[in-house]
Amino acid sequence: MSQLETYVGNGSREIFVASTQAGVATSTALSTTQTGITLTNPAGSGKTLVLLQLRGAVSVAPAGASPLVLAANVNPIAAAVTQTTPLTVRPANLGLTKTGAGLAASAVTLPAAPVVVRSVQGPVAASSVTPAAVSDDINGALSVSPGCAISLSSLTTAVTGVWSIVWEEVAEIS
Fold first, then answer.
1. Which of 52, 114, 132, 173 has the lowest CB atom count within 10 Å?
2. pLDDT for 115-145, tens place per residue?
3. Residue 69 Cα distances to 16, 45, 80, 104, 162, angstroms
4. Which is more confidently placed, 10 or 105?
5. Does any domain span residue 115?
6. Which has the higher per-residue pLDDT, 1 or 163?
7. Is residue 36 within 8 Å of residue 25, measured between CB atoms?
């Protein structure tokens, strides 16, 4: 089995998941006030958060074209992210009570405006939900260092949906 696959096996891999529990609108225009879903790796955690998957179920047709992106705070010595509306982080092996380093929230205040690091599909027209599902298999192509964060964001028009993110925590990569 490939190292990038999300099979949790005997529990030796530190894989975690967080999800909104209802529809949440994404922020627009790369703002420091982010809504939707944000994954933060606190400074000093000793872990690197390796992104595996981003999923979303769009619940309301957006008002217009709505490109979605992953936007990151990439300055590890910036002020900490303020978790306004924290989400529950769970191990991917559901039922375990393991706690990870990563923090997830549906609303945060970032220390600086984030920068786009990856495009993600999104609804393309008003009065339609096309596609109804947002799916990005990141498979380790991006990781979040201690002191940094990554958010799902809209560039132009907010998209409301139920959002989830899956990541693996590994020893800090420097």
1. 173
2. 999 999 866 666 666 666 889 999 999 999 9
3. 21, 26, 22, 17, 16
4. 105
5. yes
6. 163
7. yes
DSSP 10-76: TTTS-EEEEE-SS-EEPPBTT-SEEEEEEEEE-TT--EEEEEEEEEEEEEE--SS---EEEEEE--T
Of 25, 28, 49, 29, which is closest to residue 37 (Cα–Cα)? 25
Phi-psi region at 44: left, alpha or beta (left = phi > 0; alpha = psi -120 to 50): left
Token pair recorded at residue 63: 């008002």
Residue 95 CA to residue 158 CA, distance in Å, equals 34
* Tokens, residue 1: 């089995």
- Which candidate, 28, 40, 3, places its Cα nearest to that of 153? 28
Residue 147 lies in a domain: yes
Residue 3 within any structural domain of the chain: no
70 with 116: CB under 8 angstroms? yes
CB neighbours of residue 25 within 10 Å? 17
Q: How far apart, in whole angstroms, are the C-alpha atoms of residue 91 and residue 111? A: 28
Domain containing residue 43: 15-171
Residue 121 within a domain: yes
Q: Tell whether the model's pLDDT for residue 6 goes beyond 80.
A: no
Residue type, 41: N
